[in-house]
Specification:
The complex is a heterodimer of chains A (286) and B (365). With 286 residues, chain A is of the alpha+beta class. Chain A has helices at residues 16-26, 31-45, 59-68, 89-97, 159-165, 170-182, 195-202, 229-243, 250-269, and strands spanning 52-57, 107-113, 125-129, 139-141, 167-169, 210-214, 222-227, 273-275. Helix content of chain B is 44%, strand content 6%. The relative contact order of chain B is 0.13.
Chain lengths: 286, 365
């Protein structure tokens, strides 16, 4: 597909606010669309249960973070095996496209989420960062920035200009960026949507808005740690099977032990740890 | 060929792709995570590459920076599995300085600690000396070999009576070492509950008893801590207790091995482990851990049939070990990486004191 086929209303130098207004002007006349637009803005703007920067992390990494009081998201030395002969060209390219200059190590990658348990590929524990710890001018990007390395985005002659179009800042743009991403999917809706649907549309599997926080993240930056019911179910199943005579394997024994270590460490730190559903921040009727 | 794109070794998470070395043009990309390690199709390699921003290491390479390549996803899965287990050989990260303790959690007073039992490793060594004269030679180096392993484990199962004395001695040694380690705070709820859990498990395996406590002048254990304790009523065991019980150490074992969990994981990660640890006393810790892994209320040793019940448990434990020891053949340089990594992880643990100023590095590790 040619890059010329990209939607010019989305891939634009206009502000995200203007991109939303332009899109709304061209959208079909649907009273539910207007209602849903209002609902999305209301839901994501809510102070207490609204948008958060989230970082997913595995059990060992979470324990290390709590022990060392500093979150490290980028390692030069591998844990096992040797290093690349030369630095990763992909990483250098992404750093350049995101405008990190010569200080890429000062940026920490997260995702924007409304409830839910984040991008679970990157770890079963989802740390929600306190809103007060995310400066207003923190950079956001409308997708996984590593998508810039792959077609069709990588085929564009000036990827750097395209990357600039897809950036924004936390305070000024996040709501409009999310609205511009979500609203077209609701164009044919004949009903008003719910918080769960909005949450799911904002962060779904690997589809998310990326956030690049500059500056250290420590245990005091964490509002809460969220877990998915999936892991709780796996945990209960391993224990249930063990009691029924099906022995846990060695990996399961270590996994159970690590989960216990995490619970102890979070309790020691006084960090709330909650089980939340994929679709909402917790109980839907809250 | 399959390659690691990004790998969180200690957390058992990895992305792997079917591609050429040092390329991001992938025909297939999958994600695998513990505990199930089932491949999940990811669809695009960018998700895998971005994982490096979440603490994943950049692929898996040799000392010269060349990517290790694998014929199958089974091999990838095996490497993740063994890397994850190797992670369990190091220390659990704990804050040097945690938050201030709650004023409600202080202990009202500190009672007199219980008597100091003898050193567990010393006890085990002495019992080995006593038992070895009646034990025919057994070469267990075949446990490192996929083809020889099962026949060897079957032979051990048939000769289970040779193992029982060693198992009992090692189990006794664990009780001694746990009390030695936790003696000053054994009146606290957690260490006490752990000891209770451990004694329950050893009772269920018929490897510890009231009589043993009498024999070692440790009747106080029941009188002071568990006056109403009826171990055979236990219907549930927390098997993760393996990671909290210190491993009694023979003089020649690596003195940074701290818990039974460490001793269980070493042969599961390092395929060559039994090549140098090829005698029954070296096999016993792993066998005891395996017996605990397979233990259920149904399999607990009953007073009426102690020999038969324990023999049956040893069989189940050998079956478990057969399934958990390294199975999937890997390139020899990857085997070496895993072995090196396992011992490097162990070396991160603080070394335990030696009994008699021993020579340090262990022959049998």
């Amino acid at each position: 597909m040619s890059y010329l086929a990209f939607d010019p209303g989305y891939f634009s130098n206009d502000s995200w606010d203007k991109r939303v207004q332009n899109w709304l002007r061209g959208a079909a006349n649907n009273p539910f669309l207007e209602g849903n637009h209002r609902i999305i803005r209301q839901i994501v703007s809510h102070d207490e249960s609204g948008l958060r920067m989230v970082i997913n992390i595995g059990a060992e990494a979470l324990l290390s973070f709590l022990a060392e009081r500093h979150y490290y998201n980028l390692y030069e030395e591998p844990v096992i095996g040797g290093k690349r002969r030369t630095p990763s060209q992909e990483r250098i390219q992404v750093d350049r496209l995101l405008g990190f200059g010569n200080r890429p190590r000062e940026y920490y990658f997260g995702a924007v989420a409304l409830g839910g348990t984040g991008v679970r590929f990157y770890g079963e524990y989802c740390m929600a960062i306190k809103p007060s710890e995310v400066p207003d001018d923190t950079q956001i990007f409308d997708r996984d920035s590593y998508d810039l390395l792959l077609p069709p985005l990588s085929d564009v002659p000036n990827v750097s200009a395209l990357a600039t179009q897809l950036r924004g800042s936390w305070k000024a743009d996040v709501i409009d960026m999310l609205v511009r991403k979500v609203l077209p999917e609701l164009q044919g809706a004949n009903q008003l949507i719910t918080t769960g649907t909005v949450s799911e549309m904002i962060l779904h599997d690997q589809e998310f808005v990326e956030i690049h926080k500059r500056g250290v993240i420590g245990p005091r930056s964490i509002e809460e740690v969220r877990q998915s019911p999936d892991e709780i179910a796996i945990e209960a199943r391993i224990q249930g099977r063990a009691n029924a005579g099906l022995a846990p394997n060695a990996v399961e024994l270590r996994w159970l032990q690590q989960r216990r270590n995490v619970l102890d460490a979070l309790a020691r730190e006084g960090i709330p740890c909650r089980v939340v559903t994929l679709h909402g921040r917790g109980y839907q009727w809250r | 060929m399959w390659f690691f794109d990004s790998w969180s070794v200690l957390d058992g998470l990895a992305f792997a792709s079917l591609r050429d070395a040092d390329s991001i043009k992938a025909d297939d990309t999958v994600f695998l995570s513990v505990p199930e390690l089932e491949p999940v199709p990811v669809g695009r390699i960018s998700t895998a590459l971005r994982a490096e921003r979440s603490g994943f290491q950049d692929g898996f390479r040799d000392r010269d920076g060349a990517e290790y390549e694998f014929d199958s996803l089974d091999q990838i899965r095996e490497v993740i599995r063994r890397g994850y287990l190797a992670g369990g050989l190091g220390p659990v990260p704990t804050p040097r300085e945690g938050p201030p303790p709650s004023p409600f959690r202080g202990e009202p007073e500190t009672p007199e600690p219980p008597p100091m039992p003898r050193d567990g490793g010393e006890h085990y060594d002495e019992e080995i000396e006593r038992l070895s004269s009646a034990t025919p030679p057994f070469d267990l180096s075949g446990l490192s070999d996929n083809k020889l392993r099962q026949p060897l484990l079957e032979k051990l199962f048939r000769n289970a009576q040779l193992l029982q004395g060693y198992l009992r001695a090692f189990a006794e040694a664990t009780v001694f070492d746990y009390i030695r380690t936790r003696r000053p705070d054994l009146h606290h709820p957690h260490p006490r509950a752990t000891l209770l859990m451990w004694l329950r498990i050893l009772h269920a395996l018929d490897l510890w008893s009231y009589e043993a406590a009498d024999r070692f002048d440790m009747r106080w254990l029941y009188q002071h801590f568990f006056p109403d304790y009826e171990p055979w009523d236990a219907a549930y065991w927390e098997k993760e207790v393996l990671f909290q019980i210190p491993c009694p150490l023979r003089e020649k074992w690596h003195h940074s091995i701290r818990s039974l969990g460490h001793k269980m994981f070493l042969p599961l990660v390092d395929r060559s482990y039994y090549a140098s640890n090829n005698q029954i006393p070296e096999f016993i810790p792993g066998l005891l851990c395996a017996m605990i892994a397979v233990l259920t209320p149904d399999l607990a040793v009953a007073r009426r049939y102690p020999q038969i019940d324990q023999h049956r448990l040893i069989g189940r434990a050998c079956e478990w070990l057969n399934s958990q020891l390294p199975q999937v053949p890997l390139p020899s340089d990857v085997e070496e990486e895993l072995s090196r990594f396992a011992w490097a992880r162990i070396s991160l643990n603080p070394e335990r004191p030696r009994r008699s100023g021993g020579s340090g590095r262990a022959l049998a590790r």
